[in-house]
TrEMBL record:
InterPro entries: Acid_phosphat_B-like, HAD-like_sf, HAD_sf. Keywords: Signal. It comes from the Bacteria. The keyword Isomerase does not apply. It comes from Kribbella jejuensis. Residues 1-36 form the signal peptide. This is Putative acid phosphatase of HAD superfamily subfamily IIIB.
Length: 283
């Protein structure tokens, strides 16, 4: 079942895009365009002039293993890795932000993405050799194999203790909602990351938002995504329209946490926080 294939449409472009982004400033960037009316790649980036303008993909994979403190590629990142330290820095900045007074008559909330924002998918990157596949990924999701992103559980616990509503917003499909909830919180299956449970909204909706099938879109997604291809929301439209929906119910999203820029674009949050993720790029 390809219920997540839409989520990562261009995962096979991942490593080349990482390398291309890294060298953009060096090369000065010729935009990739293969004929005006033809289909464009999902990731718009520059074209290297020479092979040496980009990092060799096998060398890049090793650099990523080193960054995660896992030079031999076991799938377990190290607690003292540069990845863990960078994630903890973002979590600390988020904690400082939510801890200062925010004057609002609305109910204060924080909102978090799931993959590589609250749950770290490093073990799946290693297992899949950075080649996303909905079937192999579903094994990790449904068996709840992902540990917490360093620093993030304490941040969310602090927010919950301070009276914030806690919302999770993920591109994972509705069929993966129960497993996602179990991995995030504590259901005794697989990894229990120990996050506070999502807050039930004032209208009774549960606060873990997974992406419905197009046929099941609520009105706010139908409207926001009417002009998207086949009426299927882009990530930015899906996520920003959902945040708008949440705020329309009387919440103020004080902080929005994501590892992809598409998690953070489109407004409806006072401030955004970007978690590190050099492994893939989701437009
Ligand atoms: Mg993510």
């Amino acid at each position: 079942m390809a219920f997540r294939s839409w989520r990562r449409p261009s995962r096979r472009m991942v490593l080349t895009s990482v390398a291309a982004v890294a060298m953009t400033s060096v090369v000065g960037g010729v935009a990739y365009s293969a004929g005006a009316a033809t289909q464009q790649p999902a990731i718009q980036t520059s074209t290297p002039h020479r092979a040496d303008d980009v990092t060799n993909i096998d060398v890049l994979r090793q650099q990523l293993r080193n960054y995660y403190g896992d030079p031999l590629g076991t799938g377990n990142f190290a607690a003292d890795s540069n990845y863990a330290k960078e994630a903890q820095k973002v979590a600390a900045a988020g904690t400082r932000w939510i801890s200062v007074p925010h004057r609002t008559s609305k109910k204060k909330a924080i909102l978090l993405d799931v993959d590589d924002t609250t749950l770290a998918t490093w073990n799946y990157e290693i297992a899949s050799n950075w080649a996303f596949n909905p079937t192999s990924n579903a094994d990790f999701v449904l068996n709840q194999k992902f540990p917490a992103v360093p620093g993030m559980v304490d941040l969310v616990k602090t927010a919950a203790r301070d009276g914030y509503a806690i919302f999770y917003l993920t591109g994972r499909g509705a069929a993966q909602e129960q497993a996602t909830l179990g991995n995030l919180t504590s259901d005794g299956i697989g990894v229990d990351a120990g996050y506070p449970a999502p807050t039930t909204l004032t209208n009774g909706e549960d606060g873990l938002f997974t992406k419905p099938a197009v046929a099941d879109y609520p009105d706010y997604l139908k409207q926001a995504c009417a002009d998207d291809k086949n009426g299927s929301c882009t990530t930015i439209h899906y996520k920003s329209a959902t945040r708008a929906h949440i705020e329309s119910l009387g919440y103020e999203i004080v902080a929005n946490f994501g590892d992809q820029f598409s998690d953070l674009k489109g407004g409806f949050a006072d401030r955004t926080f970007k978690l590190p993720n050099p492994n893939y790029y989701l437009p």
